[in-house]
Automatic annotation (TrEMBL):
Organism: freshwater metagenome
CDD domains: WHTH_GntR
Span of domain HTH gntR-type: 10-77
Pfam families: FCD, GntR
Alphabetical keyword list: DNA-binding, Transcription, Transcription regulation
Gene Ontology molecular-function annotations: DNA binding; DNA-binding transcription factor activity
Gene3D superfamilies named among the record's database cross-references: GntR ligand-binding domain-like (1.20.120.530), Winged helix-like DNA-binding domain superfamily/Winged helix DNA-binding domain (1.10.10.10)
Protein name: Unannotated protein
Amino acid sequence: MPTKLQRSETGLSDQLVDKLGLEIASGKITEGTVLTSTHLEALYGVSRTVVREALQILHNLGLTRARTKLGTVVLNRREWNLLDSQVIHWCQVAGDANALMSDFSEVRYMYEMQAARLAARKRGTSDLTKLNASLKNMRDAFFEEGPESQKLHTAHLEFHNIVLDATQNEFMSRLSVLFTPMLRLRFEIVNAQIKIDGTFLVRHKTLVDAITESDEDAAEKAMNILLDISHKEDLQTLRKED
């Protein structure tokens, strides 16, 4: 019997969203299950307003869809917004983090190598300034706070997003918004187990140098090296998790 929700700093609707989202992600609530307001109100001891708010959020995340005269139906995983940080969190807690990381590693090759080429071809002076500033932030964080610091992870994420912005391609740039949650998950899991050293900074500087020189081939190669190492780290982490 589910525990009745209690008022806390986290609102009742947010609590209900988290409970239902995790149960859907873990398979406890399966595809095709009908969620009715009356049932959820009684099950969790909450008002109809709370249930409606929670179901609307799940709908917005692609986990459910309202069906006339039926109720709210749980959708197939293909419909979920797997790039949303909340959905990623539920999948991680449900034990799917490894599969997501493996798939995402493959996707990174598809867009980041092309982004490096475009950045080398189209970058402006301001992009180079931002890249060098980001590289400095990474270096400072590495030597001042260590390879596991949150400051380094933040600067590293910013660096890759700046490369996307340097492509001067609006669609490519928007990928930073889409993939930031997965990159955060990747850094959180991998960097907790894999120790990085100073060569990490050297490899990123090689990419900056290639973009600065407008050398598309060198930029693509430098990004490929970064991704190869990231992929190897991912595989090491996945094996440890297994």
